[in-house]
Specification:
The complex is a heterodimer of chains A (301) and B (291). Chain A is an alpha/beta fold and 301 residues long. Chain A contains eleven helices and 14 strands. Chain A has helices at 42-49, 71-75, 93-101, 110-119, 135-147, 165-180, 193-199, 217-220, 235-243, 267-276, 290-297, and strands at residues 2-13, 16-27, 31-35, 57-62, 65-66, 78-81, 153-157, 185-190, 202-207, 210-216, 225-232, 251-254, 257-263, 281-287. In chain A, helix 3 crosses helix 4 (110-119). The two termini of chain A are 36 Å apart. Chain B contains eleven helices and two strands, in the order H-H-H-H-H-H-E-E-H-H-H-H-H. Chain B has a two-stranded antiparallel ribbon. In chain B, strand 1 and strand 2 (157-160) form a beta hairpin. In chain B, 40% of the residues are buried. Classes of the chains: A alpha/beta (301), B mainly alpha (291). Chains A and B meet through helix 2 and helix 3 of A and helix 1 and helix 5 of B.
Chain lengths: 301, 291
């Protein structure tokens, strides 16, 4: 069963298309990695999933229900940390958790609050005001708030931002245990492939608001596979011919051309198909791996 | 909705800024009371100097009731600015902190959050008014004692018997709560339009100053809109201290000269509160939370 089902989701801010016809599904129990460089549309998509931003187009379904019609029931089952861990500086960690415990239908016992503080490593500083916390401690408290009501789906937007290596390792371990030991579904976003590949069972790469690649991590990061960029004189014609072939499921379209994810050994066969199909080819370029492809997109790396 | 009102009240209680207004009111009132306690007789003589030749007033003119009236005249102009400090920060302050997204990703709707925040801001405003009433009325009664209330209006004097005064203050404070809630609602509306704390506070204060000037100016063009401006009605608590007289020109105990004016003002203020809060809800429902 899909916990999240997004269809043709778009968001425009004036002339800017922040998210463009994005579709994906997250199955129960998955750790779904949402990967893209800063400004690629990850946070906008996540905010639309949490009903913070109104979509311009498209459809969001969570737990089999439409978000617009069942917002309250859906959000009861979701815990989220969105970008920076912004909290009330004049309240303590204990007060934060006590306040957010009141917002849930089920009664959250004081022992659960204490257990959550222990889970995120803040028990010793529970009664200190948040204004005295480091960024890492604030991030952990944010995660504590997200986990407090035992949600089925946890959405973490760049949860390791600003954390030291130990903090990053702790968060990684926490996400893994939430999935493996507690069976939670986790949607986690990052601009670091190295971060996502260690925890995610599935990955979606987003760039300029569009889906670039999606699939099981093991398959996308398979060293035997490669990404082939196809530049033609007539992309529309080429796309139509590829869509009518067995390459259909691996095809992606971008401004710079068409892309196919295929085993390296199939490149000659692809070449032959292009020639046989009378596609006006300009160039056929094999990228080494998904990682190289992603790094090329995210030019800051 | 009670849990989120509790949360909003708790946050107001914990915020250091909350206590600025309480402290400012206490400081102002205590300074004025101290000044009048020391130099009160001279002040009373100054007040009475124009009418001493034509009127003899027995008893204690400078009593707790008159002190309260003087304080209210001074402070009810400035308290709205203190209310704006909190009300105009209720939504924009959260947007600025980034905590609005924490609240809006809970199962409660945006309408519920906005209403809860307005209820909390309203309770804060009423508490501020109760604090003002305690210091200006009860403390003045205790320090200066009570007697008949002698008020000098622009072209007449009003003498209200001691036993007929207290309920008028209660009425005046209830009326003042409508005035201040209108300011809170205006601050709230400004707050829904911004993502920082300072802008809405300045905008609210500017709007009050702007409309107060329009309400005061006697220009025909503005006279058309003046009856509908909230600032025209905010100071009508004073109507509780204008009384009806009988054929012998004696004050009728328990009477108010113009009850209809008070009712009309309360209706106009209540409509403003409804419009401002309604507009805030509409804006927040439409808004993309990007902060």
């Amino acid at each position: 069963m899909s916990v999240i089902k997004v269809q043709a989701l778009s968001k425009n801010f004036g002339a800017l298309k922040a998210v463009d016809q994005l579709s994906f599904e997250v199955a129960a129990g998955q750790v779904y990695g949402f990967l893209g460089q800063n400004g690629s549309g990850k946070s906008t998509t996540i905010r639309m999933l949490l009903s913070l931003i109104h979509p311009s187009e498209g459809h969001i379904e969570m737990f089999g229900q439409t978000l617009t019609d069942h917002r309250s029931a859906i959000l009861e089952q979701v815990g989220a940390v969105i970008e920076r861990p912004d909290l009330y500086p004049y309240l303590t960690a204990q007060e934060h958790l006590s306040l957010f415990a009141k917002l849930r239908k089920q009664k959250i016992a004081a022992s659960k609050i204490e257990a959550t503080l222990a889970q995120v490593g803040l028990l010793a500083r529970a009664n200190d005001k948040v204004q005295t916390y480091s960024l890492g401690m604030k991030q952990r408290l944010g995660i504590g708030i997200a986990l407090l009501h035992d949600p089925k789906l946890i959405i973490l937007d760049e949860p390791t931002n600003g954390l030291d290596p130990q903090g990053i390792a702790d968060i990684r371990q926490l996400i893994k245990s939430l999935s493996k030991e507690e069976g939670k579904t986790v949607l986690v976003s990052s601009h670091l492939l190295s971060e996502i590949e260690q925890i995610a069972s599935h990955i979606l790469i987003i760039h300029q608001g569009k889906k670039m690649a999606e699939g099981p991590t093991s398959s996308l990061l398979d060293p035997n596979k490669t990404i082939v960029q196809i530049k033609t004189l007539d992309d529309a014609d080429a796309k139509q011919k590829l869509m009518e072939s067995s390459y259909r499921s691996n095809l992606l379209e971008r401004n710079e051309g068409l892309y196919l994810t295929i085993p390296k050994l199939e490149i000659p066969a692809l070449n032959a198909f292009i020639v046989a199909s009378n596609i006006d080819l300009i160039s056929l370029e094999a990228k080494n791996s998904l990682e190289d492809y992603f790094l090329q997109l995210t030019s800051t790396y | 909705m009670w849990p989120i009102i509790q949360i909003e009240l708790f946050k107001i209680y914990k915020r250091p800024r909350t206590y600025i207004a309480f402290g400012a009111i206490a400081a102002l009132i205590l300074v004025i009371q101290m000044g009048l306690k020391i130099d009160g007789e001279a002040y009373a003589e100054f007040l009475m100097k124009d009418i001493n030749d034509t009127l003899t007033v027995d008893g204690k003119v400078l009593n707790g009731y008159l002190i309260c009236y003087i304080l209210l005249q001074l402070l009810l102009v400035h308290v709205p600015l203190l209310v704006a400090l909190i009300a105009a920060d209720m939504l924009s302050g959260e947007a600025n902190l980034g905590t609005l997204r924490l609240l809006f990703t809970t199962p409660y709707s945006r309408t519920q959050w906005v209403l809860a925040k307005f209820v909390a801001a309203s309770l804060y405003t009423i508490l501020l008014l109760i604090w003002l009433a305690f210091l200006a009325l009860f403390l003045s009664m205790w320090i200066f004692g009570t007697d008949d209330l002698f008020l000098m209006k622009s072209n007449y004097v009003v003498l209200i018997q001691e036993q007929d005064v207290f309920w008028r203050y209660l009425g005046a404070f209830v009326f003042a709560s409508f005035s201040l809630l209108t300011v809170a609602a205006l601050g709230f509306l400004m707050s829904s339009l911004a993502n920082n704390s300072i802008g809405p506070i300045v905008a609210t204060i500017s709007a009050i100053v702007f409309f107060t000037i329009l309400s005061t100016l006697n220009i025909p063009l503005f006279n058309v809109v003046k009856p509908y401006l909230f600032t025209t009605h905010m100071n009508n608590w004073k109507e509780f201290f204008d009384i009806q007289v009988n054929e012998s020109n004696d004050a009728i105990t328990g009477s108010i000269l113009n009850v209809a004016k008070i009712k009309n003002s309360i209706i106009i203020l209540a409509i403003h509160i409804g419009l401002f809060v309604g507009a805030s809800i509409w804006i927040m429902k439409k808004k993309d939370i990007l902060s």
